[in-house]
Amino acid sequence: MAKAQKIIVRTDKAPKPVGMYSQAVRTSGGELLFIAGTVAVDMSGNLVGQGDIKAQTRQVFQNIGGVLAGVGATHANVVQLTTYVVGRESVQGFLDARTDLFPKIYSGGEYPPNTLLVVNGLARPEWLIEVQAIAAIG
Fold first, then answer.
1. CATH homologous superfamily for 5-137?
2. Confidence class of residue 3 from pLDDT cuts 50, 70 and 90?
3. Please, what is the angle between helix 53-70 and helix 91-105, to 10°?
4. DSSP letter (8 states) at residue 125
5. Are 117 and 132 in contact (CB under 8 A)?
6. What separation in angstroms does the CA of 68 have from each of 14, 48, 51, 74?
7. Residues linked to residue 132 through DSSP beta bridges, in sequence order
């Protein structure tokens, strides 16, 4: 099987990203890994960060990292994120946590494309964030 390659797309034919994400990513070779919406629970299923969007954001990305590690990959393999945050009041906390976290997990500022959606709620009322990811592996 071919090794997956990821190329960050930066074009002047579309507006530059307004945050820590890329316009697009091209992949070739390898496989795609689709990671289900991930929430801020620990290995026992207990919520981490009750009412704290920053703590929940950190836990979500730790959990995604665990799934990636389970298949021999890292956050560097991620080619797409979809982020759901509950309420506009959660957006800034998410952005602050992302500003702290992303430079550590995505080297060289090669952030995956990310769609950020503000929603009224998630499957459980205590969850403030859920992130779905797609990674190129192999």
1. RutC-like (3.30.1330.40)
2. confident
3. 40
4. T
5. no
6. 31, 20, 27, 5
7. 82
